[in-house]
């Protein structure tokens, strides 16, 4: 069995979870993968969002809403983000 998680055995931050390899198949995800996803989401929310996302003042928000409605026909939207799918490769053997 190998270790999942970041940084290898025992070192670094975060939890290290074991992965199980059965019959030459890809390692099955560890049961705590949702915990890692929550940790990443918390880091985005607490570290990146305050730095890169800021709410506009009322006048700027009205301007954004007018432009978005002119471009898309959808009223009362200040902005939108796309979420294209990102492919990820399985971990190396």
Radius of gyration: 21 Å
Which word captures the global form? Answer: elongated
- Arithmetic mean pLDDT: 74
Query: Low-confidence parts, pLDDT < 50 over ≥5 residues?
Result: 1-14
Q: Which percent bin holds the helix content?
A: 25-40%
Strand ordering within the main sheet: 1-2
Task: Please describe what this structure looks like.
With 93 residues, the protein is mostly helical. It has a domain at 2-54. Helix content is 38%, strand content 4%. The chain contains 2 helices and 2 strands, in the order E-E-H-H. The protein has helices spanning 33-52, 58-72, and strands at residues 2-3, 18-19. Strands 1-2 form a two-stranded antiparallel ribbon. The longest helix has 20 residues, at 33-52. Mean pLDDT is 74; it is low at 1-14. Residues 1-11 have a biased composition (Gly residues). Residues 1-26 are annotated as: Disordered.
Topology (elements, then pairings):
Blueprint: E1 2-3, E2 18-19, H1 33-52, H2 58-72
Antiparallel strand pairs: 1-2
Which features would summarize this protein structure in a list?
single chain, 93 residues, mainly alpha, two-stranded antiparallel ribbon, 2 helices, 38% helix, elongated, disordered N terminus
In short:
The chain is 38% helix and 4% strand.
């Amino acid at each position: 069995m190998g270790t999942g998680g970041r940084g290898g055995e025992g070192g670094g931050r975060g939890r290290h979870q074991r992965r199980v390899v059965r019959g030459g198949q890809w390692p099955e995800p560890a049961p705590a993968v949702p915990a890692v996803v929550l940790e990443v989401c918390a880091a985005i929310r607490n570290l990146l969002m305050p730095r890169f996302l800021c709410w506009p003042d009322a006048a700027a928000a009205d301007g954004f809403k007018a432009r978005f409605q002119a471009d898309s026909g959808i009223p009362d939207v200040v902005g939108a983000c796309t979420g294209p799918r990102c492919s990820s490769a399985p971990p190396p053997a």
